[in-house]
Structures are given as structure tokens and as C-alpha cells.
Amino acid sequence: RLNVDDNNDKTSESIFNPFLNDDIILPVEELNIDEPYLWQMAAFAARKMSDKRIKYKLMELTSAEKIDSIYRLRVTLKRIYNADIDAKNNVLYCTVEVNDDDDQQWEMENFGCTIPAMVRVRG
After folding, report:
1. What are phi and psi of 7, to 5 degrees?
2. Angle made by CA atoms 117, 16, 23, in degrees to the nearest 5
3. Above pLDDT 90, what percent of the chain?
4. Where are any strands of DSSP class E within 39-89?
């Protein structure tokens, strides 16, 4: 196989991950979201995302999966602005990744959030 066009395939990838290899597909393990440690992990991620101005509060854990030592959690968070009481509180749907490598401290790997679309119901 020629390696001439290998770089062209990768143009859509924005994050470089040295651990991702085309030949190795890691198994995804679906986890039971009733497990308390997953909720603790989700709350940990929300705290990590928070700062002095904006606080993220965990509302819901909707799914969890484990890939190697990475836990990928889908959560619903409430974004609360500390300084401005009049600011509208926002609900965000987020995917957070927490690394639990060899029972060391949890580490926040990355996260991404979307704002839910407004759904108008006509009565």
C-alpha cells in the first residue's frame, strides 16, 4: 500500500491523539448509569469545568461508557453565572471524558457541550 495520500485522509481530524491507531479498535463498554461512582465522576467533571464566574451544576447523567481507561459520560448541566443574578440560567448537554488510569486521581481529559434546541409545543 502506498502512503502518499495518508495525510489527506486526516484533514477533518482536529484533535491529534497519539493513542488512536487505525489498526487498533478499543472495545467500548456500556456502563450502568445507576452506579454511584459514575455520578461522582460526572459531578467531578462539572466542578472541573466551573470557575469563579461560571458554575456548572450536574442535573442528569444520561449515559456512560468506558474505553480503555477513559470514561465518556453524557451529562446535562446547568450553567449558573455567579456575578449576574439576572442572567438566564442555561441548560447544556455535554460529553465529558475522565481518565481513571490505574486508580490514580481522576483527570479531566476533555469536554464538549451543546445548547439544547428550543422546542415549542402548540397547545
Report:
1. -70, -30
2. 105
3. 51
4. 54-67, 70-81
